[in-house]
Amino acid sequence: DTAGNEVISPKYHQMSNVSDGYVRVGMDTDNNSDTGTLDLGRGIDKWGFLNTKGETVIPLIYDKAEGFSQ
């Protein structure tokens, strides 16, 4: 948060900024940099979304995901 407190534990390989109350998260589930989206040397192959409490609202089962916007 803005005070420097941990809101979401660092178990994801990629996280976006908060957008409309959601955070896009990605994981390299197969430890293969040749699959998925290359990000920081990892192949992010599953995406999902968390709310600002760190709760999964859309499971990490998707091959691609974009941020929310109105």
How would you summarize this macromolecular structure in one to three sentences?
It is built from no helices and 6 strands.
Total E-strand runs: 6
* Low-confidence runs of at least 5 consecutive residues: none
Shape: globular
Order of helices and strands: EEEEEE
Annotation field: number of helices? 0
- Based on CA atoms alone, the radius of gyration comes out at 12 Å
* Major beta-sheet overview: 4 strands, antiparallel
| Strand residues, percent | 35-45%
Strand order of the largest sheet: 1-2-5-6
Helix content: under 10%
Care to describe what's here?
The protein has 70 residues and is an all-beta fold. It is 0% helix and 39% strand. It has strands spanning 14-15, 22-27, 37-39, 42-44, 46-51, 56-62. Strands 1-2-5-6 form a 4-stranded antiparallel β-sheet, with no helix packed on it. Strands 3-4 form a two-stranded antiparallel sheet. Strand 1 (14-15) and strand 2 form a beta hairpin. It is globular, with a radius of gyration of 12 Å. The mean pLDDT is 82.
Write the layout of secondary structure elements.
Elements: E1 14-15, E2 22-27, E3 37-39, E4 42-44, E5 46-51, E6 56-62
Keywords:
mainly beta; single chain; 4-stranded antiparallel sheet; 70 residues; two-stranded antiparallel sheet; globular; 6 strands
